[in-house]
Amino acid sequence: MASSESTPLLTPKRTPLPKFQLFILLWVQLAEPLTSQVIYPFINKLVGELPITGGDEEKIGYYAGLIESLFFVTEAFTVLHWSSLSDRIGRKPVLLTGLFGLTLSMISFGFSKSYTTLVISRCLSGLLNGNVGVIKSMMGELTDSTNIAQGMALMPVVWSTGATVGPIIGGMLANPYEQFPNTFGRFEFWKTYPYALPCFVIAFYCITSFFLALFYLQETVKPRQNAPGAAATSQQLPLRKVLTPRVITAVSNYSLLALLDIALRALQPLFYTMPIRFGGLGFSPPLVGLCLGAFGLFSGIYQATIFAPIYNRFGTKRIFITSVMTFIPMFLLFPFMNLSALHGGINAITWTELTAQMILYVIMDMGFSCAFIYVRSAAPSKHSLGATNGIAQTCISVVRAIGPVASTSLFSVSLERNIMGGYFVYLVMVILSASTLIATTFLPTTLWEVPDEDD
């Protein structure tokens, strides 16, 4: 009986994806991972060069983690407002405001010469940018039940692309005065602002995306001005009606997945950069950028080619649970990599462990596509999709604000107090990963259905 019931789900004719509009939307989305990931290869070195650590490398994790978290701290205060506003005035004006904010933030970050200006730059980006939730709403509006897996699978691909290109740009273009003396060595500006070039490159991408969206992106929210009563309903659904049990379930699981992911992402560049004797691998910024880029590259290829058939075969819940489970071995591989480097330098064993972690990360990344699908299907109605994604993104912003500063600070605490030989941070993350599996038991095997109208 089970097979006969599941077969019709695969038989309806698939609605073609609106390719050009999706291209523009995904092009705009790429600005998000580029702006967040470009600083990772050099942020620890930049913080170490500022007069705030007193030359103590073990304290770098505290300050670098705070910089990485600030975007999400400020975003948490505004993203629900931006998402709800997009339900009323349309998605496009909010997207354009976010792109302009990202442009200003990256230019300001490139010119920063103090920790205070770094903080202000990241806060500016988070305050003006509510694009993540709005983009997910638009993706939900551009797809239907027959092509949602293909559409949602593209979003992690874009993030992976940004996670590939961003670190490479950040690592390769940092300090061009020394890296490319024949080209940039003639200009004192690049010596004064050694990390400006990668920031300016990303700022240029953001402003070109602004104009692309301005002229070619079509609005997906259709105001119902001829029906005043209906328009009022669609404009502002009370928060208590959006926070249904299924929304809470979907958002909670999405948030826990994002917390583990951002904690891992924050630990990676710190782990790669720190000297071997301080629990890391001692990589240079260009090598850090290549390693982080490789994670994103392989994840993007896998998502683009494999996710849809795997999703159709195993379903949303199985893939999501598997995604959460991969964090346990991924966190455990950190101390093993350091131990192999301590006893034989960076050798074949170290690279094998790093490759294994990369493969696990590729599998894990499928969980985000499933999380997007769960949140979309949990919305009380199609007209509250923006508010639902706004709530989800607010929660994601909160955990992504906590994750980097918590994990990198715990890394530094483990080293300073020599708890478990400096490896205590990984034990904590493994316990958190195992605990997250409990929350997945509340997810339904069959997706919820989204009503066409508000009740």
UniProtKB/TrEMBL annotation:
Q: Name one GO cellular component term.
A: membrane
The record's annotation in InterPro entries points to:
MFS (IPR011701), MFS_dom (IPR020846), MFS_trans_sf (IPR036259)
Q: Which residues form a coiled coil?
A: none
Q: Which UniProt keywords apply?
A: Membrane, Transmembrane, Transmembrane helix, Transport
Q: Can you say where in the cell this protein is located?
A: Membrane
Q: Which Pfam families match?
A: MFS_1 (PF07690)
Q: Name one GO molecular function term.
A: transmembrane transporter activity
Bilayer topology reads:
Multi-pass membrane protein
Membrane-spanning parts: 60-82, 94-112, 151-175, 195-217, 287-307, 319-338, 358-375, 423-443
Tell me the domain of life. Answer: Eukaryota
Location of the Major facilitator superfamily (MFS) profile domain: 21-447
Q: What is this protein called?
A: MFS general substrate transporter
Identify the species of origin: Favolaschia claudopus
